[in-house]
Every structure is written in structure tokens, then in C-alpha cells.
Amino acid sequence: MLRTSRRVIASLALTALTSTLAFAYGVQPMIYTLTPSGARSTARITVTNTRAEVLNVELQPFSVTVDEAGKRAFTPAPNDFLIFPPQASIAGDKSQLMQVRYVGAPTMDKGKVFVLRVKQTNSTEMVKQDAAAAMQSHLAMSLNFNTTAIVQPDSLKPALAMTGDLVFGKDGALHGRMTNSGAGVADLTLYSWQLKRGDKVEPLALDQIRYGDAVFVMPGASREMSLVDTIKGPAQLIIGALPEERGGRGL
Asked: pLDDT tens-digit profile of 204-220?
């Protein structure tokens, strides 16, 4: 019993430390669109160190492929980007601007997706004091952020739509499939989402949709998705227009 309790305490301590580590530094933006050439082939990534200790990071580029479940695969792509500075040491409570420029193929017939990974190269020591258990936990960890770069000319547009109706799965949740029949990458964060049940239409937040790890759908690709299990009853998922079609910011 004592051994089990210690395992539970250790697990809770690890969860608390990991949650604290998530605030060790921040990265913005997390998803952005570049053109293959011209002024908009460049983006700036800001890394902010929110702790007192020095933070060491480096930026690593990868090309990305995605399966229908939304699982990503990464391939190093060092020749597709110029990065300055490629590494940085950031003092406590300071920020570092890192510039990335796409220098890969200047023309393309389909949009591409890359990940610019902000990798912490030193470790952050986290200490958690548990007075009730009379123990102190020390954990040295590092944290990486994957920022997503969509690269495509303005002429390439996505065409995202649901393929068929939502159906109930064995888990009791509503499942469906969306397909991007366009030549541009579909950034799921830019769309509006609505749920239609009978004559009633209500807005749906993106975090109520499970679509895997990738927040985008590649050109010509499909994605299996489901709704959170708190949504009950027959329903239809409606994908709204892109912001540029509504008069706002587009891809």
C-alpha cells in the first residue's frame, strides 16, 4: 500500500512539474503562412524566457507529412530555410527575435508545410516541495515547441469540406471525415465551425473537434475527425468560409 502511495505521489509530482515547465518559456507565433518568394517569404519568431535562468535554444526546420489520423512525420529540411540567429542564449525575463526565411523551391503547384522547431538545448531544473509527503522532487527537463509554417503562393487556395454525414462510432462520439480538394493547405484555425441539429445551428469551437496532431489538412488529403463526447445526438458539422472570403485575413 505504501509503495502504491509513493507511486501516486511521484506521478502527481511529475504532473505538477511538467505543468510548471510549460510556462518556462513562450513562443509566438505558433502557426504562420509564408510565400515561396518575395517579402512574405520571411517570418519572425519571438522566444520569451519567463524564468530567471538563462535559456538556450536552437531553431530546427523540418518538412512535414500527415496521415489521415492527423499524425505527423518529420524530415529534416536544413536547405529550405535560412535562420538567423540559428541558436540563442536568452537571459531571464528577456526575449529573442529569430528570423526565418524560406529559400526552397520558388514555384510549387501545391502548398507545403514545415515545422520550425524551437528546441531547448539546456535543461530547466524544477523543484516541487510536497509538505504532506515530506519529500522534495527535483527534475531536469527541456521543452520544445513546434511552430508550423505553411508555404504557398497566394494563388493556391484550399477547398475544405465534410465528406458525408457524421456517424456514431463505437466510442459513442460522432465521427466524420473532411477533405481538402484544393491546391492550398487548409489551416484549421482560420475556419469557422458550426453544428447543425435539426433546424438549430450553433457555433462550435475548434477545441471541440478532435483532428489529430496536425492543425492543417494538406492539399488533396482527407482527415478523420470526431467531436468531443459531450456532444450528443445526430448532427451535421458545417465548415464556414475562410476569413478572406468573409472580408478578413486569409491564408
From this structure: 999 999 999 999 999 99
